[in-house]
Amino acid sequence: MSSASLLLVDDDADLLRLLSMRLTAAGYKVTTAETVQTALAQLAVATPQLVISDVRLPDGDGLALYAEIRARLPALPVILLTAHGTIPDAVEATNRGVFGYLTKPFDSKVLLEKVKQALSVSAATPEAGDEAWRSEIVSRSSMMAELLGEARLIAASDASVLIRGESGTGKELLARAIHKASPRSGKPFVAINCGAIPEALLESELFGHVKGAFTGAIAHHRGLFQAADGGTLFLDEIGDMPPALQVKLLRVLQERAVRPVGASESVPIDVRILSATHRDLDVAMMEGEFREDLFYRLNVVALTLPTLAERREDIPLLANHLLQRLADKYAKRLNGFAPDALEALSTAAWPGNVRQLFNAIEQVCALCTASIVPLALVQRALRQPSAEVLSYAEAKRRFELDYLTRLLKLTDGNVADAAKLADRNRTEFYRLLQKHALAPALFRSNNDDVVD
Questions:
Q1: In the chain, N or C terminus with fewer CB closer than 10 Å?
Q2: Count of CB atoms within 10 A of residue 305's CB?
Q3: pLDDT tens, 217-257?
């Protein structure tokens, strides 16, 4: 029985209930929505493996919903349910990428077969493989679920993948996960940081050398391309690779063969290339620091890892996971964090992302003498203030004050013009100004009277 999760969208309550019962009886986890907005809200909370939607909905249609899904979750399959009169729309949607459509009324067996077909190509369904491939990546955020779904789909191919993301976001972990999910998983995974090795040594490390090729070359050296033969080579910080080596790397990718330093013949290689960078390669290409032809060889598929601040819902999960892992290392019995300590972790800025979180947890683990990690140790490890969490009322007050201030600056203190820009009548706008004690005269560039 499947445990895949489905989102069912239809404004017909009876049909929604009936379909939900049938799909649940077939072993699926079903979430329902009756409008486009409710469906989008559900998608923001959790990513399903499949969306089944009626074409006609009260606040829009299934085509508009599909467009939103495609923009947010391009690997998520969608099935449309259509009445006879909307078949042309459904056919058009299929041409635009919708997985398929069913015409009402339809047999439940046909529905279940179509669902099974859609899930067989879904990147995120558990039936596509077990979760061991991504076991090192701890997450429950919808943003990461989307990314991992795409990674799982890409892993089945041999396409080169460029992983973008800030330092410390876990680019190598994602590369390892892709390798584990790929047909090459039984072969080597070899990683190298292109920015950490001097240029004079990097060529030899990548391509190898023969004995006597240069001073100190006392024996043959295979190089990482040959070491990874049949498997995956991960080129971390590819944006820091020197220009001269970029030319040689491009030649290797084109010819699928390496020529060790000092050798007269090339050696065939069968390697999948995954690369990563924290640099903006578009800017690097414009500045002539990165070859455009090499970029397109490496960037067949691009994946972007979110920062830790963009996936804050993962912080408590990650923090407790790392605490237990490091407690074993330090032979300590730690049962978790005090509530205020966990809140401090969850609201911290984390410019160093997951790597910084790991270092902070290791520090508190090493210093903790109790079974529960207190706030004081977390604050010491953070060495910076936590991000301010405002109440709704205070956040609204600050927004209004900032918004009104910007409008008055823009209009040189002219209330009539500011009210028009805000799409409010002057009486209401004056009330807002009084509420925030803002005097229009303070924003005027001269002392002349301005007619409001």
A1: N
A2: 25
A3: 778 888 899 999 999 999 999 999 999 999 999 999 999 99
